[in-house]
Amino acid sequence: MIYKLSDIDFTYPGSTRQILKKVSFDLAEGQIMEILGPNGAGKSTLLNCMAGLLKPHAGTIELDGRDLSKMSPKEIASLVAYVPQNHTPSFGYRVKDFVIMGVAPKLGIFGKPSAEDEKNCMEVLEELGIDHLAERSYLEISGGERQQAMIARELVQDPKVILFDEPTAHLDYGNQHRMLKLIRSMSRKGYAVVITTHNPDHALLLKDRAGILDKEGHMTCGPSEEIITEESLSKVYDCDLRLVHIEEMDRRACVAPKL
Amino acid sequence: MKKKGIAVNIVLLIVLAILVIACLCVGKYSVSVADCFRILSGQDTGNAMDSKVILGVRLPRVLATLVVGAALALSGAVYQGIFKNPLVSPEFLGVSTGACIGAAVGILLSMGGTMIQILAFLGGLAAVTLTLLIPKAVKSTSNIMLVLSGIIVAGAMSSILGFIKYIADPETQLAAITYWQLGSFADAEMTNVLGVLPLTIAAAVILLGMSFWINIMSMGEQEASSLGANVPILRGVCIVCATILTAGAVCISGTIGWVGLVIPHFGRMLIGSDNRKLLPAACTLGAIFMLLVDTVTRMIGPAEMPVSILTGLIGAPFNAWLLYRQRMNLR
Questions:
Q1: What is the per-residue pLDDT for B329?
Q2: Across all residues in chain A, what is the average pLDDT?
Q3: pLDDT at residue B331 in the model
Q4: Angle, CA of A116, A122 and A127, to the nearest 5°
Q5: pLDDT in tens, A96-148
Q6: Contact in structure between B88 and B266 (CB atoms under 8 Å)
Q7: pLDDT interval class at B326 (50, 70, 90)
Q8: Do residues A50 and A163 share a domain?
């Protein structure tokens, strides 16, 4: 097990609403876990806790067999790559300068990436087929290209787990699909991936683990086939949803009612 | 393309070296380049006046402009990086106003030049400490809280400064305080510059060494932390070093606006946003800018103009032009 969460409770300071209640689940290498839940349910909060950015009040998080709360940012970063949702760059770094930031966990306070790191970084860009973007400003490329650059940075970081807060938000339909494909190919390479999403279809497409976080802070986890049902979805989104099997595509899809 | 960054930095250094020689030679009393070289290398030119002008007056002054320009531009670039905000400048944590109060108190108590400098330095550090304590007191360590805190402290400081000016002797002290506030290199002395230099160089070396981490910090607190940065410590070290640079600059020349804001932007246009290349370039560009502006102020007009007037007159429209050029990037 790379992650082992046991009975996590979390409430923001000064707030009376408990965001996470006794959240527990395990995650192994090569697994993808898709976290679903309505707006404000605490999906990002959960990822922040897993990344060590927020401290749960109760419960323990074990990362690669160690207590997360006793690990330094550097130790966590060498195992976990985390992409927060509100990623707003202020400066026009070139894509390659942005991607090479992934080597940071290996460096000391006066450290700088070596020529070898630069080379490795270019190889990752080539592997993802975005080496033509290397010299472009990060502010000028499209949202889809930016997500790819982000993935390149994670590959450079070389973690065991990747936490993704809504990787498909702001992407067009085709890019969303390509993103999911990329996520699955990463899991097949052995990375454990946790993603949050607003689209139940994504969990159905990825067909691995899923967790549904409700407004009360409870989370139900398990294989997506079992967890994602018409009842559970309709309840969590407060909307009459149907799961239909589409012969042509040979897959299940989540469908909303007529307006 | 890493080589391009190094090449630009080398070209900038060569330009700076040429300008230093040129600025040593020109002025209301001009000296030939050949004589200037002879004097600098310790030879006797047979003209005592030349050597007095170069070594006694212009060299300290040129050195002062280089240190101040480089220090302000570097600290500006660092503040902009770690606060993820291209509109931040060295003045915003209250450093400059704090240093000004220190100096004003010294002037008010009729202290000597060295004492005024020490007080200016302490004033600057005190203001930053105060700015850093407010977010601690309200238990929020976010950047925006720090910026707001800086505005609060700077506001309070300028009121205190106003009060000191109000009670100061209008004949002598008020003029001296105002002159300090506007900034000038006219009274730059070698001992002042050399006194500030060791600490300034130490701070600059640390910041240049941390340039890659400043890139990481500019991604925002959460992302920097998830990339393994110990945000409170890194940010603390950066703020302390940048403050030392700003306070040191204020000690030498009084407060000089705009350099710390505009030069880093200009540097980004020239060499890109990567702080590994930008920070050294900002130092050189800041030094070049300050040197040129000061040379102009001492050459035009019958009486010397405080240098801040000119940096403002150049800096404000220049910044407007930069914003126009960068409007695509400032969304």
A1: 54
A2: 92
A3: 45
A4: 125
A5: 999 999 999 999 999 999 999 999 999 999 999 999 999 999 888 988 888 88
A6: no
A7: low
A8: yes
Would residue A108 count as lying in a domain?
A: yes
Report residue A240 as tokens.
Answer: 């009459």
Please state, rounded to an integer, the average pLDDT across all residues of chain B. Answer: 88
Same domain (yes/no): A122, A211: no
- Per-residue pLDDT of B147-158, as tens digits, reads 788 889 988 998
Select from A158, A182, A205 the last residue of a domain. Answer: A158
The answer for B 247-276 residues in CB contact with A (under 8 A) is 268, 272-274, 276
Tell me the mean pLDDT in the region B38-59: 86
Those of residues 31-90 in B touching chain A at CB distance below 8 A are 81, 84-86
CA distance to A98, A228, B17, B164, B171, per residue, from B227 (Å) = 12, 33, 39, 47, 57
3-state SS string for chain A? CCEEEEEEEEECCCCCCEEEEEEEEEECCCCEEEEECCCCCCHHHHHHHHCCCCCCCEEEEEECCEEHHHCCHHHHHCCEEEECCCCCCCCCCEHHHHHHHHHHHHCCCCCCCCHHHHHHHHHHHHHCCCHHHCCCECCCCCHHHHHHHHHHHHHHHCCCEEEEECCCCCCCHHHHHHHHHHHHHHHHCCCEEEEECCCHHHHHHHCCEEEEECCCCCEEEEEHHHHCCHHHHHHHHCCCCEEEEECCCCEEEEECCCC
Average pLDDT of the residues in A172-198: 92
What does the pLDDT average to over B279-304?
92
Q: What are phi and psi of A86, to 5 degrees?
A: -85, 80
Residue B316 scores a pLDDT above 70: yes
Rounded to a whole number, what is the distance in Å from the CA of B230 to chain A's nearest CA?
Answer: 6
Q: Give the ipTM of the model, two decimals please.
A: 0.88
Model confidence at B2, pLDDT cuts 50, 70, 90, reads: low
Would you call A111 and B230 a contact, using CB atoms and an 8 Å cutoff? no
Put simply, whether B169 touches A (Cβ < 8 Å) is no
Residues A3 and A70 in one domain: yes
Number of domains in chain A: 2
Asked whether residue A142 falls in the same domain as residue A167, the answer is no
Main-chain phi, psi angles of A237, to 5 degrees: -95, 0
| Domains delineated in chain B | 63-325 (1.10.3470.10)
Q: Which residue has the higher pLDDT, A45 or B128?
A: A45
Q: Which residues on B lie below 8 Å from A13 (Cβ)?
A: 139
Cβ-based burial of A173 (10 A; exposed 0-12, middle 13-18, buried ≥19): exposed
Structural domain harbouring A71? 1-79+159-230
Residues A180 and A209 placed together within one structural domain of the fold: yes
CB of B100 closer than 8 Å to CB of B91: no
